[in-house]
Amino acid sequence: MSLVPPGPPPVTNNPFGLLKYARAFREDPIGFVGRRFEMYGDMYSTVFRGVPLYVTRHPAHIHQTLVTSGGSFMKPEQGLGARQIRRFLGTGLVTSNGDFWRQQRRMINPAFGRKRIEAFGAIMVEKSKAILDRLQPGTTREVGADMMALTLNIVAKTLFDHDPTHDQDRVASALDAFRNSSGAANILPSWVPIPSVRRMNHALRDIDDVVYGLIDARRTESDAALATRTDLLSALLLASSETPGTSDGRMSRKELRDELLTLFLAGHETTSQALTWTWYLLAQHPEIEARLHAELDDVLGGRWPSVADALPFTDRVLLESMRLFPPVTTVARVATEPVEIGGWPVPKGADVIVWIYWAHHDARWWPEPERFDPDRFLPERLAQVPEGAYTPFGAGQRLCIGKHFALMEARLILATIAQRRRFRIEPGHRVEKHVAVTMSPRYGMRMAVEAR
Ligand code: HEM
Fold first, then answer.
1. Does residue 407 line the site of ligand 1, with CB under 6 A?
2. Nearest ligand 1 atom to alpha carbon 399
3. Model confidence over 106-164: pLDDT tens digits?
4. Domain residue limits at 135
5. Helices marked H in 325-451 — which ranges?
6. Ligand 1 contact via 404 beta carbon (within 6 Å)
7. How many domains does the chain fold into?
8. C-alpha to C-alpha distance for 315 and 295, rounded to whole angstroms
9. Which of 45, 105, 135, 297 pairs as cysteine with 5 (C-beta 3.0–4.6 A)?
10. What is the CATH number of the domain that holds 125?
């Protein structure tokens, strides 16, 4: 038996070959990789610009890479994707590794404890109620943009006690520039005078203005005043006084900036995509929508939801929506030592790409995988699904820190809005998946708003 899984020929540094590969991959990453899985099986390997690359969709491999052998891997620090993210986010919880990551995670974990998160429920409902004014029946809305604005507001208020009313458009367009940034904007130095680099510089300046503004304003407060606040930014400013490695024992301004921006971005974009796809699915499946409405009417009877309300069908709708449309489609790792995955030896330095999307769409674990069927998440049916086949939040030590925050937030937003509104796709509007940092609808989600 060969020591490497089968796979396509290596991609070298030859610019023409690279360009051809990048174009084919970029156009439709899901289809591109899906065809390779069909051709080579659950794990295929190749060599990408001199680095061994292993790509898998198998739940057992996913579980091994992220959980049981998670200690033999780190987050990638090189490569285009990693550079794109680092250029913008710097070194925060999502991008860091080793002792620095461990220290940051320990410091931030308490802010995501169950009790702390539950205290945010009222804000989540308040902000969702406020957006109903914009979602006027009879109008057509870009629901993706509305969900983005809503989740951005929620994360700013809950984690940083900030109402981004004035900076909202600036922040939104800077984040858009980052999301849509080309390879060139991330590889070339910032002084190169081409439009994509200029746009990226502009976005970075805008974001830095807002984030440093927030940090500097809060830093003027005394420790005693900070201690009376309950948000994460204040906690970081206080707790970081015990962090070794900086001159005054606190996190540096740049470290705080990176962490805040990381949480800002990771904390709203994914949840917003999950909700946008959920509205799409509900519009396409009136029978499921009717069951959701029945549960809301039954449990809430017209009042606003709270964290104490059990809404099991609403939860199942969200879980199934994230199965079909996982906001994060892949997770990447680099082997820090030789390790074995699915019986294959993976050498130190190899890249491993885990395809969450394809594990979620595999008929072996999810019969009729393209069917929207929230009852797959009934406990007795879920018990049949192998570990690693459903990982919208990742798994293991790098499991999403915001998982419970996101699940609670999405449930409260859905329950608040679906009590008063329903949405229908604008006739003729094209809906297509677009995979970049997260998976979004390529042409947005234009929907007609109806009263309920
Ligand atoms: C539906 C919503 C969300 C989805 C689908 C999602 C998905 C993920 C995934 C797949 C990872 C693991 C990445 C990896 O292993 O390489 C991750 C990590 C992370 N997420 Fe989320 N996320 C969501 C919401 C949130 C929220 C609300 C926050 C914060 C408020 C957040 C903050 C983070 C952070 C900081 C990490 C890095 C954790 C670490 O490496 O220690 N996420 N998320």
1. no
2. 12
3. 989 988 988 889 999 999 999 999 999 999 999 999 999 999 999 999 999 999 888 87
4. 15-451
5. 356-360, 379-382, 403-420
6. no
7. 1
8. 11
9. 45
10. 1.10.630.10
